[in-house]
Amino acid sequence: MSLEPNSDVSADLTGRLTEQVRSAAGAGRALDIRGGGTKAHLGRDTRAEMESEPLEVGGHAGILNYQPEELVITARAGTSLRAVEAALAQRGQQLPFEPPHFGPGATLGGTVACGLSGPARPYAGAARDLVLGARVLTGRAEVLRFGGEVMKNVAGYDVSRLMAGAFGTLGVLLDLSLKVLPVPVVTRTRVQVCGESDAIGLMNRWAARPLPVTATCWDGERLWVRLAGAEQGVAAAAAVVGGEPVEAEPADSLWTHKIREQGHGFFGGELPLWRLAVPSATPALGLPGKQLIEWGGAQRWLRTDAPAERVRGAVAAAGGHATLFRGGDRTGEVFHPLPEALMGLHRNLKGAFDPEGILNPGRIYRGL
Description:
By secondary structure, this protein is an alpha+beta fold.
């Protein structure tokens, strides 16, 4: 079954976007790539460093092809996440990585460009793992296609997945093909009261067993776990993880609104919000402030006014990296500093795809 584009919302702006990039490259003008504007708070704030003109991609929208039996959907980058998810829901399918929206205008391209994944990320894969192919507009005003619409045709350099998390610095995403999966037959959530060390231990013990865990979260007082799959398997796993059952409606609100969309009270307030990525079994880091732990212990959100050097030093000592996700000084470096050799690779990639440095310059690192 192929889903045809809806003529009311579908538009191919490839020609206009290409001409704007060509003009900007010739004049050396920086471009600020914009979709729905829901991820504008992520990355560095470069407004004081340079002037840029907007490159509006939100109108480049429409579902191009949907093959439920092949578990793949292809859509233009400006297509809203809501439209993609609604089309999938009609056939009992979903985006496995549960991408955050952060607002009603969220687009497919902006989500992939920022590399965002939700609660299911450790169990279903990250955004980049589900990207099968992409059509990209480079800073040279060239339209290139990478990958395809099936898993097995990916060969050589997997450039389409390289675009996930690049924040538009390597190219403007035009079209994307993503793998989708069926919605689980049964989903159940359990909760129990425990401390940080116990929560980290439990999440890692569960990960070492063949349990149908699809999300975990320690909110500072309680440990929540979501199980999904066949009825018999979920019931058996619930007996193993213990805790108390949570009704379907509050459970869905927890994982969707409070965790995925960061509506939990933890995410409010004025203190900077750090996103810490560490090996899942890492003990408590001993940093000041409040924490919320996801992804089996591997993703730890931290609200703190501690200096960036202290936060990054503690995380680096554990073998991880720290990102200033929201708040704080966003004119400095918000992503974890890279070794010079690795930064050199980033510069080479930027030079290959965007030699004039016009696409979202400085959004990830200063000078990149």
